[in-house]
Amino acid sequence: MPNYTSRMQYLQSIYTRYHQASKKEKGRILDEFCKVCHYHRKHALRLLRQPLPEAPHPQLKRRRAWLYSPVVLHAARMIWKASGYLCGPRLKEAIPDWLPALEKRLSLSPATRKQLLAISARQLDARLRPYKLALQRRFYTTTRPGRLLKSMIPIRTFNGDIQIPGYLEIDLVAHGGNSLEGNFLWTLTATDIHTGWTDRFAVLGKGQTGVFEGLKAIQARLPFRLRGIDSDNGEEFINNHLLAFCRRARPQIAFTRSRPNKKNDNPHVEQKNFTHVRAFLGSHRWESAEARDRLNALYAQELLWFQNLYQPSTKLKTKVHIGSKTHRSYETPRTPFKRLLASRSLDRAKVKTLRELQTTIDPFVLSQTIDEKLAALRRLACPSPPPSTFVRNPGPNALLYFRERRRNHRQMQKAERGDYFKTFKIQQERRLASVTS
Prior knowledge:
It is a single chain. By secondary structure, the protein is an alpha/beta fold. It folds into four domains: 4-49; 70-132, no CATH class; 150-378, Ribonuclease H-like superfamily/Ribonuclease H (Nucleotidyltransferase, domain 5), CATH 3.30.420; 396-431. It is 52% helix and 10% strand. A five-stranded mixed β-sheet has the order 3-2-1-4-5, with helices on both faces. Strand 4 (228-231), helix 9 (240-248) and strand 5 (254-257) form a beta-alpha-beta unit. Helix 4 (70-82) packs across helix 6. Residues 137-141 have low confidence and may be disordered.
């Protein structure tokens, strides 16, 4: 059925022709009008007999004048680009921290500086939207289940009761390109649940020893005491090395795991896997020890300082289910370092070093250094290996195994349908018939 505008246009096209036609032609035009517009005949007659409605005048939407000058938006875009493309609320909180370094590169008048501090988060999102459309991201990861020690490690599904720093969610991100075959780099990501403090360590291969050594290196850099770790069910975490390490620590470190195939049990580290790893490194493949050492140097210094001292992050405050909808409210975005200072549960010596470091670092120079090191790291990337060929002629043992599995599967299907017992009765009747004959 045509819409209202199309029906009115059609009425205007036949209106003059209808009034100039004979009685017989008017009947044909009326039939055509009813058929095209799906009108009742009486309603169509009323439209054709009444005066022709005038075409509606197009309404001009009044647009408000832009409040912020192009200089303000250029300054905000410089901070947005150098800070890692933050969203509006996070960028709003990051502008005061980046403003002293911005004034060294861009001359800002007092009025421009005032507007830059007053611009709202929604206005930042609206004015930066054209530049955001060009950004595309990809993300993937894999996990192999650990088969041992699961009964000794409790499952944790809720982290809302944690109010002090020290409880980490850990996970691995693969840097294997388009293939998971062979030996390549993995990133061990550790995220503190309360503050959002995130640290990473690159390991060559997914072995238990390498992941364990990476976790100890991250622990040595943390500006707070490690109180607990929460991992998925991969065999790189569910092993004797990590379990014994947590139990022998004094005070003891809590070790929990998520439910199998439930990524929402570790939401903090799953988010950082994308924003703090995949968004910077992409989907390249690295296999060399040189790439591992360069990546670990970047994780231990520039990226660690940049993302924990200068990138505000949001944190969920409340989550309420209203019917079929979910209403979420968030705290004011703050950097992980500011959340750590507010918690007062910290390592004073390391925090003092970070305070001194923050006063001497220029965030724009830090961002440029990260880009240069990432460009050098991408030059070390290698192509993904071709997929392995499918074995079309398996050995006799494999054939026997698959035949046995297929036979057991068919028997189970027959038992579920009741066909198994029918077949058994038929066989018994045949045996009795052969004996009696």
